[in-house]
Amino acid sequence: MKKIIFALLIIYSSLLIVNAQWQPDARLSNDINDSYTSYNNALCVASSGNIVHVVWFDNYSGGVYYKRSNDAGISWGAAIRLNDFHSNTFYYYPSISVSGSDVHVIYVRNHNAYDIVSYKRSTDGGVTWGSEIQVTSTTNSSQFPSISVSGLEVHAVWQFWTSPARQIQYVHSTDRGASWGALTQLTNSPGNLSFPSVSVSGLTVHIIWYSYDNGIYYKRSTDGGTSWLAETRLSSNQAISKSPSVTLSGSLVYVVWQDYRDLNCEIYYKRSTDAGSGWGADSRLTNAPDSSVYPSVTASGQIVHVVWQDNRVGNWEIYYKRSTDGGTSWGADSRLTNNSANSQYPSMSISGSAVNVIWQDNRDGNYEIYYKRDPTGNLIGIKSINSEIPKEFSLYQNYPNPFNPTTKIRFAIPSAGAQYIEHVQLIIYDILGKELSTLVNEQLNPGTYEVEWPAPTGNASNYPSGVYFYKLISNQFTETKKMVLVK
Fold first, then answer.
1. Which of 100, 183, 261, 451 has CA 20 to 30 A from 381's CA?
2. Are residues 446 and 480 part of one domain?
């Protein structure tokens, strides 16, 4: 009988953590007019540490708006309009990217019948904003910009109108967006090209777009955008393929798009394991009775997240799925929204263990911006090493100790009556008590866990030899232990 009860507790505990991951929808905008997110090529949410940044546009008041959370999406500050009001001037299709305290926003400004790409930045995490910088000229209309940042380098792409067809244009900044280089036309196609998406890591810049010949195309630079390799067609069929999104994790490049090869629009996926030199086969991610469109992808290590809008229940809802093995296999579809109105154009970001999703939603009678978070959807470097429920809390001595370059820290969480999920933090401090890193900030089931410090992708080269402390904090238990780094 005890074994049966124990098994039921494990099952119930697992169900609780699954259901507790995605938290309730949060409404971010409150306007009598419609508020819109951009299409999937432009991410409208970005995050760095516990700060989550969101942008959207109001098509009636003609402005781009910004909002941020300082506590990983739990609460939100006031919305800030990034543009001054001018009659007959409208701002739309924003895209945002973050590097530390630098927040970069690119958008379209429409004035006197021209669509111009403009840019604004904040160097203090979104508290204050600099002046608008016009990136493109007024001789060609430019639309649907996408922006990505790596350190000091900021890269942007968009589609622009030229003869004989729309092409892809690119520009980059080497000084955190203070100034911008010359415009570069990346394509010379006889047919129209649209919806480019950019993602960058170091000096390698990856750009994708779709062509009206029905293909998804890819191009990369390995020298920070100075020169470009030949473009590659990624989609392997002649059916309509459109609305691509690209993301990176080290040498792994992940691409998703919507595809009509199955007669019903489905989400497809492709990856490169060598920074874009070669590509694997197309993989179908959805199998729904109605259209699945406008996917957005982001990744961290081997964890890949995809979000899209889906009409399988008779109205547009937001769906999500993820892979924890670099896209080799995928979990089941998860429905994130559930209302009779339309939820559309999602985008997402990850920061630490959290997954952040925003979209536009007309459940309130007009379109408003909504947000949802999963605080444990991107667990990195933490492993469950024993499913048996411990009898008490424990924080074990790290091993090896002393260590160089990495060490492992193990801790145990018991069951606490009906409270089967415990919020746990594991924090690293230096000898002066300065917080260096939060390794764990999760809701966890009872069990024994192990985490590595520094992170599996790093090492202790950024830290001097000496004494460090690690502290386990939960609602019911706190303990601190000492470890030594020796170089």
1. 100
2. yes
CA dihedral 115, 105, 242, 325 (to 10 degrees): 170
Q: Could you tell me if 21 and 380 are in contact, meaning their C-beta atoms sit under 8 angstroms apart?
A: no
Instruction: Assess whether pLDDT exceeds 60 at residue 17.
Output: no
Q: Count how many domains the chain has.
A: 2
| pTM for the full predicted model | 0.78
CA neighbours closer than 13 Å in the CB half-sphere of residue 149:
25
In this structure, are 212 and 341 located in the same domain? yes
Give domain status of residue 19, yes or no: no
Select from 357, 374, 391 the last residue of a domain: 374
Q: Are residues 218 and 208 in contact, defined by beta-carbon separation less than 8 angstroms? A: yes
Quick one: 343 and 474 in the same domain? no
- In tens, the pLDDT along 93-126 reads 999 999 889 999 999 998 777 899 999 999 999 9
The verdict on 342 and 461 lying in the same domain is no
The structure tokens listed for 264 are 């019903």
> Do β-strands 283-284 and 292-300 pair in parallel, antiparallel, or remain unpaired?
unpaired
Q: Which domain holds residue 136?
A: 24-374
Nearest to 81 by CA among 148, 114, 129: 129
- The span from the CA of 32 to the CA of 64, in Å, is 15
The answer to whether residues 355 and 374 touch, using CB atoms and an 8 Å cutoff, is yes
Judged against a pLDDT cut of 90, whether residue 145 lies above it is answered with yes
> CA 52, CA 34: separation in Å to the nearest integer?
22
Cβ-contact 200, 248 below 8 angstroms: yes
Question: In this structure, what DSSP letter does residue 416 have?
Answer: B
Q: How far apart are CA 129 and CA 84, in angstroms?
A: 12
- Which helix (H) or strand (E) segment holds residue 398: the answer is none
CA angle 61, 66, 71 (to 5 degrees): 150
Q: How far apart are CA 105 and CA 107, in angstroms?
A: 7
Question: 131 Cβ partners below 8 Å, 6+ apart?
Answer: 120
Q: Which residue has the tokens 């386990």?
A: 472
Residues 6+ apart with CB under 8 A from 204: 220, 221, 222, 248, 275, 276
**366 and 419 in a common domain:** no
Residue after which a domain boundary falls, among 374, 404, 424: 374
**Cα dihedral angle (247, 249, 253, 257), rounded to 10 degrees?**
-30
Tell me the C-alpha to C-alpha distance, in Å, between residue 380 and each of 281, 424, 441.
Answer: 27, 15, 11
